[in-house]
Specification:
Layout (H helix, E strand, L loop, with lengths): L1 H19 L21 E2 L2 E2 L18 E4 L6 E4 L5 E6 L3 E7 L1 E6 L2 E5 L3 E3 L4 E3 L4 E6 L2 E12 L5 E12 L16 E4 L7 E7 L14 E9 L9 H4 L5 E8 L6 H4 L13 E6 L2 E6 L3 E3 L7 E3 L16 E6 L2 E6 L3 E2 L7 E2 L2 H27 L1 H20 L2 H13 L8 E2 L2 H7 L8 E4 L3 E7 L5 E7 L7 H13 L8 E5 L6 E5 L6 H5 L2 H4 L4 H21 L4 E2 L8 E3 L5 E3 L6 E2 L6 E3 L3 E3 L5 H6 L1 E3 H17 L15 H10 L18 H14 L10 H12 L30 E3 L16
Parallel strand pairs: 26-30
Antiparallel strand pairs: 1-2, 3-4, 5-6, 6-17, 7-8, 7-16, 9-15, 10-17, 11-14, 11-16, 12-13, 12-15, 18-19, 20-21, 22-23, 24-25, 27-28, 28-29, 29-31, 30-31, 32-35, 33-34, 36-38, 37-39
Helix pairs in contact: 11-13, 11-16, 13-15, 15-16
């Protein structure tokens, strides 16, 4: 009877639980406040959340005022006193609107209709440059979009922009479906932070040179939400009936950063205590913390989500578990008749399990008593460990740890790249290097000392310990960590991680066992092992890597310190390029950067040295010097040689011009009729790379292709254009070098001067 009784009790309990948490429990029960008290929450079918409002008292400020026009049915909201019709407002920071189409129409060569719509947005509102595109439709069309955009930095600037495209075709039959590439349709992007948009639309020949000249023929231009617009050839006629198209705007609660905004609690926009602040490109916005939902701009606007009722896809309570809602979260426990943690399992108990539970309670009691005794004995040790942890935290912050983590987090949010940086502890690296034993030193340079280390999984690594530096060089350290963590290429020294809890920062790389190219070229015994084929293969692999950095990586990367010391060789003489501490990322639509000069004498681009304008051709010049080193076996700069031979680049060019190429080649290179032509071709490539004017030098992509063709080698870098690996959000960093004396005038802090396109 006992089992039946237990089953009846369990059944009654289950029925009661089901009645308490039945169908109503599956419906959302929270009605979150989205507008200020006594303010309308909608205009027609559109919700109007605060900071927006239909009256000045209901809006945070004038920029967020919405005029509800009740002459429409249903009523329609407009942004302020403008003609910009609002279709939706998102607390995530987007405003969807409808904007007028620009049109330019002709019949028999005579203009019948032409308008130039424009948008002027208040501060805190900008046109979204990723969701929208500027599109022109027509067969005799050129369209221009221009205005001003907001540039945020140490100060806020309002700068002009102008761009456009043209579309030509003879007839509608020439136009393809779903293609917008200049035949019947063209498109281009708009700059980030555009505050106003003015569209100018015109025709080259008034449609007289098309088959449509006797019909009403129109051109159209507009900035449109790409998600709601897919081009079709029918638009050449059907757009005559359209007046407006959807457009996406971005909004922010304030133009300053979160850190600055929080200083003044009165004007700080994130009013709910359960809200977070996030910086974005045009200011800052607010959102509810995880486990809360609602309006973060209202006091008490973010309310707890009852995860037990409003179950999300990540709901974790298993079957037979009881969900208990808590403030901002929830817990899962098993029913009294079940055992388990509620998250992974809930199993029905049996007598044997109850006996086991008794033993468990006894064991836990004994264990707790023993633990109290041990904790008392270890109190002093715990104090010492706490002191050590405080020191590690201090060093972590001083070495840029918080900045590094923040920038890594930003990179992860804006990129699909999954490469991460391992954070090693100081104890791990002390064990790996035998407490940084001098016998483990494998190289020293301007930035620090490199040790050979063995991790606990017997992996051999190179650990770079920087010298004591001022904190202005932390930006260089961060740059190399971020650059190398995102580059995945066989000819780059792979960064495995870093350690930030020591007095000076540490970088951990893969260990390249065969030393630097410089050591092999300038050591007689090692140089004898470097055949012409090996030297050309090293040159080709290095050129391929630089071609990848310049042409395939996004954004492109300029290494800025290419030299034989920074090219390592493994046992099979595969080239591995290191030291990205001076590297710079090239912003979109730029070909040069204005910087303070940094590099190594003998390899430094003379044009860059004179103008401070850093371009990809600066790497080409440095590579040319390395290529000459491979051919001659001489150092790039040597003051022990006669004056005319001190600069290897100048001496090489002079020798080639005099026809003395074969007199200066390395004695270890066998020159015969079979390879004489090949050596001349390589010398010509090096000579072109060493042109004083950057415009006269080839690109690294051209150099890589010529070296591959000349040596008939097949390398993995030749496939880069087909397997482009995307690189994003990289920042200035910290170098990796074994020797050589480098020029480090400054950690580069001056950013690019962006030229503004003039005229139409």
């Amino acid at each position: 009877m006992a089992p039946n009784y237990v089953m009846i009790v369990a059944l009654i309990t289950f029925i009661c639980f089901s009645l308490s948490f039945g169908d109503d429990a599956m419906l959302p029960t929270n009605n979150y406040l989205i507008a200020k008290p006594n303010c309308n929450e909608s205009c027609g079918d559109v919700n109007i959340p605060f900071p927006f409002g239909i009256t000045p008292d209901c809006a945070l400020r004038n920029q967020f005022l919405v005029i509800c026009n009740y002459s429409f049915h249903p009523p329609q909201p407009f942004l302020g006193n403008s003609r910009i019709e609002i279709t939706s407002i998102s607390l995530a920071g987007q405003l969807k609107v409808l904007q007028f189409i620009s049109r330019d129409c002709y019949r028999a060569g005579i203009s019948t209709d032409n308008n130039q719509p424009f948008i002027v947005l208040p501060s805190l509102l900008t046109v979204n440059n990723t969701a929208n595109s500027f599109i022109a439709v027509g067969c005799d069309t050129y369209a221009i979009v221009q205005g001003y955009y907001t540039k945020f930095g140490t100060k806020i600037e309002y700068l002009p922009y102008i761009t456009g495209c043209m579309s030509m075709c003879n007839s509608i039959d020439d136009v393809g479906h779903d293609t917008c590439s200049g035949v019947g349709c063209c498109k281009t992007s708009i700059p980030k932070g555009a505050r106003n948009v003015t569209i100018t639309l015109s025709s080259y020949y008034n449609y007289n040179d098309t088959d449509m000249k006797n019909d009403l023929s129109c051109s159209y231009a507009f900035v449109v939400d790409q998600a709601n617009f897919s081009f079709s050839k029918t638009y050449l006629s059907s757009l005559q009936k359209a007046e407006k198209l959807p457009l996406v705007l971005d909004w922010a609660i304030g133009e300053e950063t979160c850190e600055v905004a929080k200083i003044n609690s009165t004007t700080y926009g994130c009013k709910s205590k359960n809200s977070d602040c996030q910086d974005n490109s045009n200011g800052y916005r607010c959102s509810c913390m995880q486990g809360y939902d609602g309006n973060p701009y209202l006091k008490d606007g973010c309310q707890d989500i009852n995860e037990c009722v409003d179950r999300k896809p990540d709901y974790r309570c298993v079957k037979n578990a009881i969900c208990n809602n808590t403030d901002g979260s929830y817990t899962c426990t098993c029913h009294p008749d079940f055992s388990g943690d509620g998250y992974t399992e809930c199993n029905r108990d049996n007598p044997q399990r109850k006996i086991q539970n008794i033993y468990l309670v006894i064991g836990v009691t004994i264990g707790v008593a023993l633990m109290v005794f041990i904790i008392f004995g270890w109190s002093y040790t715990a104090f010492q460990r706490r002191r050590m942890l405080i020191m590690k935290k201090k060093f972590f912050q001083e070495n840029g740890g918080l900045v590094l983590l923040q920038r890594l987090k930003v990179g992860e949010e804006g990129s699909s790249n999954t490469n991460t940086v391992n954070i090693f502890t100081a104890e791990e690296l002390q064990r790996a290097t035998n407490d940084f034993d001098k016998d483990r030193v494998v190289g020293q340079g301007g930035y620090g000392t490199v040790y050979k280390g063995y991790l606990k999984d017997n992996c051999i690594v190179a650990i770079k310990k920087s010298k004591v530096i001022d904190r202005n060089q932390i930006e260089q350290f961060i740059n190399e960590v971020l650059v190398l963590s995102q580059i995945n290429h066989r000819n780059v020294v792979k960064l495995l991680g870093c350690c930030l809890e020591t007095e000076v920062p540490l970088l951990v790389y893969e260990f390249i066992s065969n030393g630097t190219l410089s050591e092999h070229l300038h050591d007689k015994l090692k140089a004898s092992a470097l055949s012409l084929d090996i030297r050309l293969r090293v040159a080709a692999e290095t050129a391929g890597l630089l071609s990848y950095l310049h042409s395939a990586a996004y954004p492109p990367i300029i290494h800025r310190d290419i030299k034989s010391v920074n090219i390592l060789l493994d046992k099979s003489y595969t080239a591995k390029v290191s030291d990205f501490g001076a590297s710079r990322l090239v912003p979109a639509n730029q070909t040069e950067l204005s910087t303070l000069v940094q590099g190594t004498l003998g390899y430094l681009d003379p044009e860059y040295l004179q103008t401070s304008q850093l371009t990809e051709k600066s790497d080409v010049y440095s590579f040319g010097v390395v290529l000459v080193e491979l051919l001659t076996g001489r150092k790039a700069l040597c003051f022990q040689r006669p004056e005319e031979e001190r600069s290897l680049a100048q001496y090489f060019i002079s020798s080639v011009e005099k026809g003395h190429l074969f007199d200066i080649l390395d004695d270890n290179i066998v020159c015969d009729e079979g390879n004489a032509g090949q050596l001349k071709n390589v010398a010509v490539i090096a000579q072109r790379c060493l042109n004083v004017k950057g415009d006269d030098r080839p690109t690294m992509k051209e150099v890589a292709a010529e070296l591959e063709a000349g040596s008939k080698l097949k390398h993995s870098w030749a496939q880069i254009d087909q397997q482009s690996e995307e690189i994003e959000s990289l920042l200035p960093g910290f170098g990796y070098e074994y020797s050589e004396h480098s020029i480090h005038v400054d950690s580069i802090t001056n950013h690019a001067t962006i030229p503004f396109p003039g005229g139409r």
